[in-house]
Amino acid sequence: MMDITTISPSTSLSKYICFYYELELHNENYYAFPSSNNVICIFEQASVNYTTDAIHIKKDISAPNSFTALNKYTKPLLVTSEGKVREFVIIFKPYGLSQFTITDFTNSPFFHIQEFDDFFNFQTDFFELPIAKKVSIVESYLLSKLNEKKELSLIVDALNLLQQEKLSIKEIAKALKCSYKKLYRLFITHCRCSPTVIRNNIRFRNALEKIKTQNRNFKLSDIAFDQGFYDQASFNRMFKNQTGITPKQFFNQVSVFSQKNIYFKNLKER
Length: 270
Known about the structure:
- The chain is an alpha+beta fold.
- It is built from nine helices and eleven strands.
- Strands 4-5-7-2-11-10 form a six-stranded mixed β-sheet, with helices on one face.
- A hairpin with a 2-residue loop joins strand 4 and strand 5.
- Helix 7 crosses helix 8 (232-243).
- The longest helix has 19 residues, at 195-213.
- The radius of gyration is 19 Å and the shape is globular.
């Protein structure tokens, strides 16, 4: 797989979306790793099949172009493909996707958004367009669907605290002058998952960033403490649950495909 070039969203959507990129899959076989974001993949003429921790994309000229949405996952996601499949990817912030849909995807690793079914009624040549035009079309479409839910600002503040402070969820609720019960409900409404899932995924990604910026010259005990763990053993368990491998093994086996921290672990060619 080649390096991935990402495109930032316009000002009008930067509150909800991290970035976009496009990719061509060609008999791929790799693992992707958890993050706190939601992902939408727009596939060109492919059949898409999935289980809890795996997705298989197969080129199928009889299939229509389609959306597949991925919820936040907590274990490595196995991605396999057959044939050449083009895709356009939207990376939403943790609360971003729920501002464009009423679909309840809380307990679904992959899901279909009925509100988006009409996209290809008007964009039959979408995959023949340059990426800048794709982004423009997608953004115009998403803006037509935008319906921001109430009290989003509380979730944004809570996520900022999760990123920057070593606080428990109860401590964050107290800092925001909000009950734990209300904050939990808002996470389900806006992020479609519990605050604990978000916290663990943020810790994992922050640890990757710390390791990467230190050019692998790191002490695991320092990384563990920096991410709010009381001991290295607890950190190791979290890391292995998220990746299937130890921190020491991770950067020997995993490639960084973008400055936006897209991590894939390639498997043997099929």
